[in-house]
Amino acid sequence: MKNKKKILVVDDEKEFTTLIKANLEVRGKYEVRTENKSSRALDAIREFKPDLVLLDIMMPDGIDGDEIARQVRSDEEIKNTPIIFLTAVLTEEEVAERKGVIGGFSFIAKPVKLQELMEHVEKIVG
Hints:
It is a single chain. By secondary structure, the chain is α/β, with parallel strands linked by helices. The chain has a single domain (about 5-125), classed as Response regulator (Rossmann fold). Helices cover about 40% and strands about 25% of the residues. The chain has helices at about 15-25, 40-50, 65-75, 90-100, 115-125, and strands at about 5-10, 30-35, 50-55, 85, 100, 105-110. A six-stranded mixed β-sheet has the order 2-1-3-4-6-5, with helices on both faces. The protein starts with a strand and ends with a helix.
């Protein structure tokens, strides 16, 4: 398949990004890159030009995911890049209450269920 959709996974947990990358790439429809340093996330988005960013909210190395998303939205070149937040900070009740949206962005609660992730990815990149 020539026109693979590009997905960037930004999360400080290397094992997690490796697992997500493997599960997406095995389908043969996606080219996946990972970034484990939040300080490099914006440059990775500008360089890779992904069709979707899977972005952890809690990043211990300086810039949280919500700040990265805010910077993406204020950058003319990349502002239309779809983002799905990944978060371990919400309870099931909070997830239901927010109807899967934080600050206008879709989100998936951790631990991520592969089926749920694939449904979100398919909905956005087709």
